[in-house]
Amino acid sequence: MRIRQDFNEGWLFGGAQVRLPHNAVDLPFSYFDETAYQRVFEYEKVFQADPAWDGQEVALHVEAAMANAAVFLNGEEIAAHADGYTPFEARLTGLLKPGQNRIVVRIDGSENPDIPPFGGVIDYLTYAGIYREVWLIIRAPVSIGLHKIETPEVLGAQKTLSAVVALDNPQGRALSGTLTATLREGERAIATSSVAVTGAQLRIDMGGLEGIRLWELADPALYHLDLVLETPAGRDETSTRFGFREVSFTTQGFALNGKPLKLRGLNRHQSFPYVGYAMGRAAQERDAEILKYELRVNTVRTSHYPQSHWFLDRCDEIGLLVFEEIPGWQHIGGAAWQAEAVENVRRMIRRDWNHPSIFIWGVRINESQDNHDFYVETNRAAKELDTTRPTGGVRYITDSELLEDVYTMNDFILGNEELGGNRPRTPLRPQREVTGLDRQVPYMITEFGGHMFPTKSTDQEQRQAEHVLRHLDVLNAMYGDPQIAGAIGWCAFDYNTHKDFGSGDRICHHGVMDMFREPKFAAYAYASQSDPAEGVVLQPVTFWARGERNIGGVLPLIILTNCDEVELRYGGNTPKRVKADRDRFPHLPHAPAILDQRHFTADELGLWGMTWEPATVIGLIGGTPVAERRFVCNALPTRLELVADKAVIGARDAVRLMVRVLDQAGNKLPFFPEPVTITVSGPGRRLGPATVPLRAGSTGVWVQAEGRGVIEVAVHSDRLGAVRTRLTVG
Question: What confidence score (pLDDT) does residue 571 get?
Fold first, then answer.
């Protein structure tokens, strides 16, 4: 029987006891020296060898360590792994002493030019540490190894399934016995099949499957394949979750299960303030939920490396498509570096090939130059392992050689005058202008915006309105071109970076949300494209202040919404009702309403804003009011708000809490900069400093549970007093 033992407690790091995942060096929010973690660190754990392990295979399984890891058992090196983003195992069988053993994991956080993504400069940080979980695995001497589940012909009335299963047999024992597979949905067994063990790789097929639901975005049906291996060496079993679905790209776009689907998405870095990559399951799952339910995108790209399996698992569960790619950023190293990158392709695919959410493999170093021989190899490696998904290669140079199935392009023409020349404002270039080919090919935009128009939450309203328009313009162009499969904006969340990038503060303010996952106005450019049945969106792009804009007032006023029309009530003036602006945005599922001079008489414009008045914005669908936003004309700090993502959390979860200062109408005060002090009592600890400033009227904090009970979080403001909440750790 296989045992997967939590091995994350009781590690020594720098003389202190820590629990994994762990960040070797916590960084300030901004203006830090990123070389602080670019050195060697050691993690040490002493444990007892269990006599029950005798005759079994025992291994240390590390989900990920950054970046160049070596494992030592009782002073002897037993494993090494140069990839900071994929798992590895150190085999302990035959090396354990009776009683006490000492294991050391040495990680080198330096940017080693011999391994991807290093060798050049990269626009993100690679925080050192054992930043994902570690497990001790005990299994039979002959056990179930890598296995890939494929679901061909999912569009037929009867479904089929095939699984190719490799057996792990490190002791070289004679192979015999039986492998049994059971397909189930929940607790219901659907089909069972068995094959004799005749070699190190086996294949199990199931056909004639009826009543199978497909994995869809709105109904991400998931199934399990339970595998049981019985050999003279013992019994091993495992269960793998997967879905029945089909993905395809053509010159007319993307289809999921044979139905056309426009891919609307954002890129995600897996980093968090202060603790870098070292966030566990709950935070990883929450990011997927934010993308799906708050930003309401249907696609995410894991820029620029494989991300946590917890994140991918949650994407499977909630119906969020994933573009996953290998580590790298522009730079291509020498022959050994390239060979390691090809191995990165293999590791990524073998780890993640059973995730139904993943619809394409990124097998090119992000934004790199052409390299024919290298990219022939990365594509070959992908196709040898997985024929069910296409490959893509993210580039930003035009006329790039197409070796992949899909031409995936970072198109930054909007706002780039050097690229744009004398042409008018252009959201996206025509496909053939980009590819240089004499034919149409499957085509997708993988980045736009971002560094072309970095926008802080505290930026002036006019800049934030332009930020919104740039995202809307590209989305509108994408929806209007049937040959573009989709567009993935840069990016979901602000992130820390090297000195060479960002705003000088070691932050790239490229996100539609800040680093605490608090939305900027541009977040609603995405959310407003959702069906009102998912929730009505009504977000005026304004702080409602007379003198915030260069010329005063709030016109033109963009109102991001999935309503048919909006009504503005301003003071005692005649209400103004405006429909979605289909003239400017004819292709969006839901165009914004834009109030400007066209909607006012000359007399009204003369009075507009001379005496600042309160306002109400009402969203209507079919003439019926469905949402309302109120704005006051004399905003004052009225209430300190503290909201946790969850009130009940797991014993090892980290939960996010948002702190906001609100005015009389419940709106954030965007330029309220005063600090708050955050204290945590009970079985939990605060991640990050105790006293922090409010940025754009808010700040966030993650609290890490450290046992069961009740955690109390208190936030104090000198002006507004204190607010508290409790978290129950179950």
Answer: 84
Q: Report how many helices (DSSP H) and strands (DSSP E) the chain contains, helices first.
A: 9, 46
* Per-residue pLDDT, 460: 95
Instruction: Report how far residue 379's alpha carbon sits from residue 169's, in angstroms, rounded to the nearest whole number.
Output: 29
Q: Which residue has the tokens 């503060």?
A: 505
What three-state secondary structure class fits 572?
A: coil
Least Cα distance to 465 among 550, 531, 563, 580 occurs for 550
221, 244 Cβ separation under 8 angstroms: yes
- The residues, any chain, with a CB within 8 Å of residue 649's CB and separated by 6 or more, are 282, 655, 705, 727, 728, 729, 730
Beta strand segments in 115-262, E: 134-139, 143-150, 159-168, 178-185, 188-196, 201-209, 223-231, 234-242, 247-250, 253-256, 259-260
Output phi, psi for 323, to 5 deg.
-100, 110
- Answer whether 300's CB lies under 8 Å from 492's CB: yes
The pLDDT, as a whole number, for residue 419 is 66
Q: In this predicted model, what pLDDT tens digit does every residue of 10-34 receive, in sequence order?
A: 999 999 999 999 999 999 999 999 9
Distances (CA, A) of 402 to 393, 504, 589, 719: 8, 36, 31, 60
The string of pLDDT tens digits covering residues 476-495 is 999 999 999 999 999 999 99
Angle at 147 between CA 89 and CA 349, to 5 degrees: 70
- What angle is formed at CA 531 by the lines to CA 525 and CA 533, rounded to 5 degrees? 130
The answer to whether the predicted template modeling score (pTM) of the entire model surpasses 0.85 is yes
**Residues paired with residue 445 on neighbouring β-strands, in sequence order:** 409, 487
CB 91 within 8 A of CB 59: yes
pLDDT, position 417:
67
Q: How far is CA 376 from CA 54, 371, 521, 555, 605, in A?
A: 46, 9, 42, 53, 63
Nearest to 76 by CA among 51, 102, 50, 99: 102
pLDDT tens-digit map of 85-99: 999 999 999 999 999
Catalytic residues: 367, 447
